[in-house]
Amino acid sequence: MANAVKRLIPLLDRVLIKRAEAVTKTAGGIVIPEKAQSKVLHGEVVAVGPGARKEDGEFIPVLVKVGDRVLLPEYGGTKVSLENDDKEYHLFRESDILAKIEN
What is the pTM of this model? Predict the structure, then answer.
């Protein structure tokens, strides 16, 4: 799994994000049905591209880095499946990311 993620390098200002797992059980132990679960709107940055290019060819650096937790829009991003990995990854443009979550 780690090798597949390391081999995937996003282009330009794109960011590869692993969405957080949906909560399937309450603190009291009640199992939440799949239809009642809310969509997960945050995730962890797994890989980052070099950034967008200016007209003179220089790169504009990306504001997020690997390991950052970010807030995502409800819709958007491109779903990416990696070999031998059952986790859900999405590719977003940096401008689509809503916020960076501080710890």
Answer: 0.77
